[in-house]
Amino acid sequence: MADAKHPPEVDRVAASQKAIAARRARASLKRDLTMRVIAPQTVVARAIEDPTSAAGTLRITDFLTALPAIGEGKRDRILAQLEISPVKRLGGLGIRQRRALGVWLDGRFPQPGPRSGRSRLLVLAGPTAVGKGTVAAAVRENHPEILLSVSATTRPPRPGEVDGEHYYFVDDAAFDRMVERGELLEHATVHNKYRYGTPRMPIERALTQGRTVLLEIDLQGARQVRDAEPSATLIFLLPPSWDELVSRLVGRGTEDAEERSRRLRTAKGELAAQGEFDYHIVNDEVTRAAAEVAALAR
Ligand SMILES: Nc1ncnc2c1ncn2[C@@H]1O[C@H](COP(=O)(O)OP(=O)(O)OP(=O)(O)O)[C@@H](O)[C@H]1O
Ligand SMILES: Nc1nc2c(ncn2[C@@H]2O[C@H](COP(=O)(O)O)[C@@H](O)[C@H]2O)c(=O)[nH]1
């Protein structure tokens, strides 16, 4: 007979499904921390807001070892230094412990602060399939005053891509000539495969006319633009989660399995460099993310 100690079968199944869902949510959150899709400070804030959430029920030990470059030895030293018991969950930390953890996290994982001066040169970068192209297209549609740069590439066009609109599709010899003549503001071999570059002339013309320009380029290109134009505003687009990033890449269906894993390897390195960017925007919703990008235009 069902009683408190022996609940009905249907309740036991529901409880076990709930426990599995909670474990999955914590595993996904740990992946996001490891891949740097989410800032550790954000996870702590979520844990404080809702101690029953995936963040709140995450063990402090699991939280720390999910962070890049923290093994078990380092984890135990940090816990001793912060005077936090290893059995604690993030949502169960006391006020002093939260404060100590916050100070330690800010020192180790500094968060970008807003820039004081704004430039009319915006650079949008981020891992593969996060939605840079989609967000940039939404900016172009809703803000025709912003010039979206059209890059040159040696990659062949995908079905539906139009020369001069999505890219200037060129062969290697033509790309070499553009580089030799200094016609590119920046250029790079992306995902160790094809070359991409930003034509300099349309950008200089638009900036001279007082327009804002948006470049949608990779991390190497973003670094080159920063070197050439230190006032450029660098924006890093983040996915809502690592799992969602993988699912967008697979769902787009434009790369085979080998190319997808090459792109995900690059993505890991790009996420690790997000600290070099002035602003981070999460692309959970295209219209909102595009509005946030456009709001950074002068
Ligand atoms: N906010 C969003 N929610 C759901 N799906 C999205 C969102 N933004 C983009 N996508 C989808 O994700 C896929 C990848 O988007 P997109 O091609 O714009 O990425 P990308 O960052 O430009 O990729 P790459 O760097 O590989 O060129 C597309 O199928 C797109 O429709
Ligand atoms: N450095 C540059 N990177 C660029 C440029 N144009 C696009 N890109 C980046 O390449 C990858 C792959 O693009 P895909 O269209 O083949 O999926 C993506 O990260 C783009 O942002 C550029 O001019 N310079």
TrEMBL record:
- Which residues does the annotation say bind ATP? 126-133
Question: Does the keyword section mention Zinc?
Answer: no
CDD domains, sorted: GMPK (cd00071)
Q: Name the enzyme's class.
A: transferase
Q: What is its EC number?
A: 2.7.4.8
Q: Which reaction does it catalyse?
A: GMP + ATP = GDP + ADP
UniProt protein name: Guanylate kinase
Q: To which species is this protein native? A: Microbacterium horticulturae
UniProt lists the gene as gmk
